[in-house]
Amino acid sequence: MAVSASSNPITSVQPNSSPITSVQPQQYGGSPLYNQQQSTNPQLLTRLNLDLRGQMFPVERETLMLLPESVLLGLFPQGLILSKPASWEGADDGVFTVDFDPDCFEYILKFWSNAQEKFYGTPTSIGLFHLQQNITSVSSGSGSGSGNDLTSFTDQSQNPLLSKQAIIVLREELEFFSITKSNHIAKTNLQNGLPNDELKYLKKQCGKSLENKKSIFAALERNVSSVGNAAEAHLIDMLCMSGFNRTDEWGFRACEPSRNVITSMALVLLKTGIIHPSEDNKDGSNNVPYIDAQQMGTAQKLLLFWRKPARKCWWDGVEVEIPASSTAKQGDVQTVKVWARRVWTLELSLVG
């Protein structure tokens, strides 16, 4: 089903008020890793050993290429050539040093593996993909929509959500700045411009405090409340209708080493509106999946972000309580004002 841009709560708002805007094509223009037409080229590596900050991950090339564009750009910001050098000898693999959190990468790989097994099945279990092959002759479970609309929902050539597992990818990069009071023991050396030990400790504690604030939507809802941005409220509503819950927490969240940056990642299965009747149905009636037309219509709007990651950036000011100093007694705390620059990247990934 072709989705009109005007029907999307994100793209329908004016550019200067849109809560999220598409990244320029040159930044996300196709896969930075390899040309799919060359997948049978014997000169391409079939396996890579990724050294993520000292932790090794052997990854098949095909598995790597299933990951979303925004994740690949985070792994390989300068791109990656998978063809073998002319002088290449030995095993069909390569070792690549990557500045990416290994726990975040493991979280992504596990989620992708579980999603594939659930949708496509295993040698011992039938997946949702097999069950959905009979959905073409079933009308909408909601009973709404015209015949043409239902055809666009049930025709696999028009609706990729019937044959591919859809995953919503939401990533946040939070850069924070601690505001110290005048005459505070935490300060910068004016002669060399370097922070003293107390300032380093203060920033580290501020990062830990922000890291522990794991709610996904708390900061954006706070921004909606302060400025009354209806478009941002619609963004939250759409994401919560599509698979998130308002109380959800980040699946991964951690401070970057030697940087005042916190990286967060949340992955959820897209709620497509394809209803699979309970296996407890013993009489055999109503055992074929059917489509909730309204939910499917919402899910198809997210297809606008397939291979087209979009970004939103805003500033957020919060106060955190941290120890008064590196030598303070337990319970002796101070309140520090922190300004955070948050950048969200939203993308839909189809696992085929």
Automatic annotation (TrEMBL):
Residues 1-36 are annotated as: Disordered. It comes from the Eukaryota. InterPro entries: SKP1/BTB/POZ_sf. This is Phosphatase activator. It comes from Kwoniella dendrophila CBS 6074.
